[in-house]
Write a structure and sequence with these properties.
It is a single chain. The chain has 154 residues and is an alpha/beta fold. It contains seven helices and six strands, in the order αααβαβββαβαβα. The strands form three sheets. The protein has a two-stranded parallel ribbon. Helix 1 packs parallel to helix 4 and helix 6 crosses helix 7. The longest helix has 13 residues.
């Protein structure tokens, strides 16, 4: 774990708020309108994810991410190892723990996001490649698109 503290995390939040993907910014009203149906599942930490997504109407209880542990001086001393997201297959476990009803769609930029679909915890996976393309997730997106004869996902 890297050495950091609450002051650095606040600076990180400011930087992240200025680095939101253009398509996300353009669709801010969509996120606000549908925020009750949107969950953020992240391998990051709540301390910097929540302040960024709150501007898009996403409630704290709709953010599943890792938890820092702080000492009395505000320095990070570790993380909650019992949190699903700190474990292998954590995103899958996190989605299953929500016990969502209806169709579950996953939009993600990495292989662990695709694994949610692969495990059956979601019915569809949409690769978000605006910022980067994880080679493995990109491969599965490519395979699904062409194997499905033009369908984005199946």
């Amino acid at each position: 774990l890297f050495k950091t503290d609450k002051d650095f995390i606040q600076k990180l939040v400011s930087l992240l708020k200025k680095s939101i993907s253009p398509s996300i910014v353009r669709n801010k009203e969509f996120f606000k309108k549908h925020s009750k149906q949107i969950y953020i599942i992240s391998g990051g930490f709540k301390d910097y994810v929540i302040p960024v997504v709150e501007a898009y109407g996403i409630e704290k209880d709709h953010v599943l991410a890792n938890d820092f542990k702080f000492d009395s001086k505000g320095k990070v001393k570790g993380f909650n190892a019992r949190n699903f997201l700190s474990q292998k297959g954590g995103k899958i476990m996190a989605v299953k723990s929500l016990k969502l009803k209806g169709e579950v769609l996953v939009v993600g930029d990495g292989y662990t996001d695709y694994e949610i679909r692969k495990s059956g915890a979601a019915s569809k996976f949409y690769a978000f490649t605006e910022n980067r393309q994880d080679r493995q997730a990109g491969y599965y997106f490519f395979w699904i698109f062409f194997r499905g004869r033009g369908k984005i996902c199946h």
